[in-house]
Amino acid sequence: MYDPNNNVQRSSYANLMHSDPNLSIGPGDDETYSARISSFSVMGASFYDDIPRISTDGCSPMMMSPWNQVTPFANNKTPWPHPSPPVEDAPPQNALIGSLVREEGHIYSLATRGDLLYTGSDSKNIRVWKNLKEFSGFKSASGLVKAIVISGEKIFTGHQDGKIRVWKISPKNTSVHKRSGSLPTLKDIFKCSIKPSNYIEVKKHRSALWIKHSDAISCLSMDQDQGILYSASWDRTFKVWRTSDSKCLESIPAHEDAVNSVVAITGGMVFTGSADGTVKIWRREIEGKGTKHFFVQTLLKQECAVTALAVDEKGSLVYCGSSDGLVNFWEREKNLAHGGVLRGHKLAVLCLAAKGCLVFSGSADKNICIWRRDGTVHTCLSVLSGHTGPVKCLAVEEDKEKKEPRWTVYSGSLDKSVKVWSVMDQPPHDMGMGMMMQHQQGTDADSTSDSLRSGRSMQ
Fold first, then answer.
1. What DSSP string describes 126-145?
2. Which is nearest to 238 in space by CA: 251, 221, 224?
């Protein structure tokens, strides 16, 4: 339902860190992060400044503003005992439109299709919203909904039980969604199970078919041009699916720990991020009717977990969010040279989105930072505050009804709500002061950049 007063009940939430990525979390375990995080603590040192945060090549951005403070977890019974204070001095062009509340569970996934918003939660339901009102919904047999991807008339949902479910929108009635199958199909499972060579060891004294994920699915990414779906999982692999016939083309043992994110871009390049602290690049080549992915390089190696990845619409910049609250980015036009670090959060970055010249980062600190990109310089326009729990997922759509550039931002949280924001693409009035401070902090930025290249954890 639509909640104009923006009142959201707080949910119980504990065990911020999940230190053993080898253990599968059951569907009923709501009190853990869905992104696997290593034993590295997400609580890092903090510094506050009133000046807009900026990042550029070789220069680290400013630290957090005063309104972004939260109480450390160690001194509280729950991670968010008090609602975040309102951002009184936030620019008027960025405003909260409303909240979508359905007391079903934590919101783990979002996807948009035109004026429709799809939300996935730990209730196993996928809800469909239109104009801030519930439009329709459909339910899976089992498995918390961890990821949603839409391709044409098909909807793919990734679940805690390791399955990918496929749904079709009725051409006669867009409010009707019918399940059309799952990945892998029962037919392929039967065919594959006949040959012993199709079984691989997934854990000690446990084997499974290579075409099936043996742990929770953490992320889905679609290459629309090629009709290829990528699925990342806590089983340390990512798999490649051909959507035309639901075939599993390939399974890649990508990391030494849970794979938290996968992003495929035009041109056959794939990025994966893991709880092992690495971001890896893969190149896809077509071989006959199948595909073959080759490891290219390790883009990042650090102690803290990689929790989110995003690529801008042009595919020129790659963003990586980590459990230490930092967002690193690289420039493809400069052979993926490290471009800088966005410092806007005190706790783990759980989700990223890039649209137009804006970058959005959602965090366990309950806030959403809006960054405006000018070349490789990123300035924090504002901080969206209002959730009473970690921001787990983001979806962004252009508001075409407005004359000026404006975006509708959807943020899903573990406080069981989805908030809808209207955001304008406009730089802050005091950009010049921010640029001056950026130049003054060049020395600190150089040491940060060196730390990144050496593989040391940046806190």
1. EEEEETTEEEEEEE-SSS-E
2. 251
Question: Partners of 383 in the beta sheet?
Answer: 369
Residue 407: CB atoms within 10 Å: 21
Strands 259-265 and 269-274: antiparallel
Query: Of 269, 274, 240, nearest to 258 (Cα)?
Result: 274
Question: pLDDT per residue over 170-193, tens digit each?
Answer: 888 888 999 999 999 999 999 999
What is the spatial distance between Cα 384 and Cα 279, in angstroms, rounded to a whole number? Answer: 28
Describe the chain by its helix, strand, coil percentages, rounded to 5. 10, 45, 45
Residue 281 contacts by C-beta under 8 Å, 6 or more apart in sequence? Answer: 269, 270, 271, 295, 296, 297, 298, 299, 336
SS3 annotation, 339-406? EEEEECCCCCEEEEEEECCEEEEEECCCEEEEEEEECCEEEEEEEEECCCCCEEEEEEEECCCCCCCE
Q: Ramachandran region of residue 288, left (φ > 0), alpha (ψ -120 to 50) or beta?
A: left
Q: Can you read off the two tokens belonging to residue 451? A: 């730390």
Residue located via tokens 């949902």: 157
Q: Which residues contact 372 (CB under 8 A, 6 or more apart)?
A: 357, 358, 359, 378, 379, 380, 381, 425, 427
pTM for this model (two decimals): 0.77
Cβ atoms of 231 and 237 within 8 Å: the answer is no
CA pair distance 328, 300, nearest whole angstrom: 9
44-72 per-position pLDDT tens digit? 333 333 334 445 444 433 333 333 333 33
Assign 294 to helix, strand or coil: strand
Residue type, 134: E
Output 207-212 pairs: Cβ under 8 A, ≥24 positions apart. 209/184, 210/248, 210/251, 211/184, 211/239, 211/248, 211/251, 212/162, 212/184
